[in-house]
Write a structure and sequence with these properties.
Layout lengths: L1 E5 L4 H12 L3 E6 L11 E5 L5 H8 L4 E4 L8 H15 L4 E5 L27 H15 L3 E7 L12 E4 L11 H14 L5 E6 L1
Helix pairs in contact: 1-5, 2-3, 3-4
Length: 205
């Protein structure tokens, strides 16, 4: 299959690239700094950014799946880039997208109707990143693409263990962390399994 990946130089995005190439898939990655990404396997590395619709179009044309591991990076890159990705997917009749979000945009258990980042469940004092991810969730929910948002809690570096808990739209009870490896592996596999369409998925050990 052909996978278009945004955010490929990040921790989760880089691991998704590695998994895809390991399995023999073709990868096209749009990055600002190509030297940050190793060129191995069936990968095409394009230099550009998600503010440029032509760059996005060159990345997603012919793709079977789009993966966004874009971060917020203290900017509006995420919320400004995703609308371009969605519109380009629609233009080229690409249906499937898996994105990496944050546990902050899962539903609060204690305060129904609120996101976790809006409730007492969240330990984060700064909410900018969660607000950016919440905007993306609303955009995807209003689109007609086949979306899944993978929402890990605290995300330390580490390899995939393979044993973790999953819950639709909520963080598994008392979930405290999950490694980059397990987050990337779940997101990568969900591209093909499509078990959580139109859903935010909470991940934690």
């Amino acid at each position: 299959m052909k996978l278009a990946i945004f955010g490929a130089t990040g921790r989760v995005g880089g691991e998704i690239v590695r998994l895809a190439l390991q399995d023999g898939h073709e990868v096209i990655a749009l990055v600002r700094t190509p030297t940050k990404l190793k060129n191995f396997g069936h990968i095409t590395i394009l230099q550009g950014n998600v503010f440029n619709e032509e760059d996005i179009e060159n990345t997603v044309i012919g793709a079977d799946v789009v993966i966004s591991a874009l971060g917020t990076d203290r900017s509006t890159t995420l919320s400004e880039g995703i609308p371009h990705i969605i519109s380009t997917m629609k233009k080229h009749h690409i249906k499937r997208i898996v994105t990496i979000g944050t546990a902050g945009i899962l539903d609060s258990r204690t305060e129904p109707g609120k996101f976790r980042f809006q409730s007492s469940e969240s330990k984060q004092k700064l909410t900018f990143a969660a607000e950016e991810h919440a905007k993306v969730y609303k955009m995807l929910a209003e689109s007609n693409v086949d979306w899944t948002i993978v929402c890990p809690t605290y995300l330390p570096d580490g390899e995939a263990i393979g044993k973790y808990r999953i819950e639709k739209n909520k963080l598994p009870l008392n979930g405290e962390k999950i490694t980059v490896g397990d987050t990337a592996k779940f997101a990568y596999e969900e591209c093909f399994k499509q078990q959580f369409l139109y859903t935010r998925v909470g991940l934690a050990y």
